[in-house]
Structure formats: C-alpha cells, structure tokens
Amino acid sequence: MKVALLGAGGGGASALVELGLAGHQVNWWARSEETLDPHKEIGGVDYEGVFGEGRMEAALITTALDEAIAHTEAAIVTLPTTAHAGVARALVAAGWPADKPVILNPGHTGGALEFAEAWRRAGGTVPPIVEFSTLTYVARKYAPGSVTTTGKAGQVRSAVLGGGDAELELASALFAAATPVADVLASDLCNVNMVLHAPGAVLGASWAEATGGDFTFYVQGLTDGVARVMEQLDRERLAVARAFGHELPNLIGEMQRIGTVEADVTDLSDYRAAVSGGVANAKIKAPDSLEHRYYREDFGHGLLPFIELAAIAGVEVPIARSLYAIGAAATGNDYRKTGRTAEAMGIAGMSKNQLIEKVRGQ
C-alpha cells in the first residue's frame, strides 16, 4: 500500500520503519527542512531498538504536502496533537480527497472530533478519520537521521468518527496494534498519557525546572504521592467512560495491553510498581522545561478535552480540574485559547445523547 506519512519525530520515524518492514511504500513529509535534511542525506532513517538495527528508506522525503499525498491510499498523522488542526487545514488546501482515510496515530483525547471540526471550518468535505488512543511506539530521536524505538504497542484502541468498518480494516492492515472499539469516545478515554503524565508533570514541576529534567520521569519521579493522584485521576476517567456506556480497564490494565507495563504484573492496583517497572519507559527522562509536550500537549489536548467530555457526561472530575488549573498557572498558559475546547471539537452545547449519536454516525 502507498501511504503518506506526516511527521518526522520519533513516532513518524518509527512508523516509517514498521511500514517499510511490512512492505508498504511511504512518502514522508514534515514542515521543517531542518528536520528532514539528515533523512534526505541517507534516504530515510537509521533505526535501532525493537525493530532491530538497520536503515529504512522512504519512497519520497519532502516538505511539499501536495507531493507527499499524491496517489496515496491513506494519510497517517504522527505529529503531536497540538498540530492536528493545522494539519487538517493544510490537507484541505492540498486537496486530500473525501473518500480516503486519515489516520491519527495518535489522536489522544478528542483528536478525531477536533480534526473533523478544523477540516469542516476550512471548507472541506470531511474524510473518514481513524483515531488511535495513543502512539504505537515509545521512541526518541537522540541523533539527526536516526531513531531509537524502545517499545512497540501490542494494542492501541482505534475507532472511526461516525463509524466505518473498511477504514478500521485498512488501519489494522497498516498497524497490527490497532484494536477496534465501539466509537471514538472509547478511544478518547483510553488516552493513557493524560493520566500518566499530568500528575507527575504538576507535582514534579519544580524538580523539572531545577534540574532541567535530569531524573527519570516514570521511576524517580513516580513517588507514592504522585501515584495516588494518578489513581484518583484514573478513577475519574473510568467514571466518564462509564457515563458514555464504556467499561474500560484501569490505567495499568490498559498499559499492559499496550506493552508499557510488563505482562507478568498481576497487581493492577499498584500504580507505582507497575509503571516504574515497565522496561520501555524506565530510562525516559523528565521534562526539561515547562514548555515540554507533557505540559503543552497533555494539558491543553488531554486534560482540557477530558474535562469538556466530563461536563457533557455530567460527571464531576475535581482531580482533573485541579491538575489542569495548577498546570495552566505554573506554565502561564491559557490552554483554552489554543487547546481542545468543546468549541474546537465541534461539540459545544451538545447533550450526552447528541454526542453519542455524532460519534456513532446515528
């Protein structure tokens, strides 16, 4: 299959490797020439980690979006969720057809809803939008032109906004980890990063600033107190999911399905031990500043849309609201100006039943 891969960070580079190993033809796009230049020099990416070691070539590497999407069967967006609305507008301008799917890997919380609303406002006919609950990799680019992939997801939740079996089958053909759920609200509420990052980001903010992130976020940064807040936030997530008709695993169970909690963990109630014992995340450093994506992405595009969904569901989420308020104050950001509000997701003023009807195409 020939696909357009949008994004050249750790996730995009890992996706190039996985798709290439599976025999797919990949046109690789990013906005930045500076990001792509090292990859152009070698024709692709040097890789190490769970996929082994080697070099994976791309069919095309370009900053020209119209060239990247030409004659492709799907567009795969592996960019931070803060870039989704802009990418939607860019794809409309580049002429992406309404009958070919866009896959958000990841969509996180409210990704498909925001993407579709940005597309609609740009004047385009919205294509099928597939949303993954989280990125299918744990990966970092430690050197230009290369990627280190320390984890590959066993399962991530996937759904199509408004429904679509054919699009889910296509996404599963590209990414074996894609596991269908009933609707994008279920995939939204399986966004582990919101629960995994926000408590430690808030409670460890001074340590992150003082040390420049020189500690391991999921081990040294995950104290008993952080773990207790994480568990309370997770309970709120499960309550909102239940209000929308979804019974979901707790954070530890979901991470175990993904593969970032070890398979032999049996106590799913011990958040600290389960998360800190995960091999894929063990060496990952904490944010080096309050501009890190754990703040920019997981507050405005994680906690904020979660709070908006909770309000529609009629569920109180005091821990989420508190973390959001403190995170916004600490960073000095008004995430409501840039984040996934109900308005940005196109769901402002909806009742719970209206939202369910929207995501299921009823």
Layout of helices and strands:
Elements: E1 2-6, H1 10-21, E2 25-29, H2 33-42, E3 44-49, E4 54-57, E5 60-62, H3 65-69, E6 74-77, H4 84-94, E7 102-104, H5 111-121, E8 129-132, E9 137-140, E10 146-152, E11 156-160, H6 165-174, E12 178-180, H7 184-188, H8 192-203, H9 205-211, H10 224-243, H11 251-258, H12 271-276, H13 293-313, H14 318-331, H15 335-338, H16 352-360
Parallel strand pairs: 1-2, 1-6, 2-5, 3-10, 6-7, 7-8, 11-12
Antiparallel strand pairs: 3-4, 8-11, 9-10
Helix pairs in contact: 4-5, 8-10, 8-13, 8-14, 13-14
Largest sheet: 8 strands, mixed
Cα-atom radius of gyration = 19 Å
Mean pLDDT: 96
Structural class: alpha/beta
Give the H and E element order: EHEHEEEHEHEHEEEEHEHHHHHHHHHH
What is the count of DSSP helices, taking H or I runs of 4+ residues? 16
Q: Can you give the helix content as a percent range?
A: 40-55%
Q: What spatial order of strands do you see in the largest sheet? A: 5-2-1-6-7-8-11-12
Strand content: 5-15%
- What's the architecture of the largest domain, going by CATH? 3-Layer(aba) Sandwich
CATH topology tier name of the largest domain:
Rossmann fold
Q: Which CATH class of the largest domain applies here?
A: Alpha Beta
- CATH superfamily name of the largest domain? NAD(P)-binding Rossmann-like Domain
Unreliable stretches covering 5 or more consecutive residues? none
Based on CA inertia axes, which overall geometry fits? globular
Distance between the termini: 31 Å
The number of strands is 12
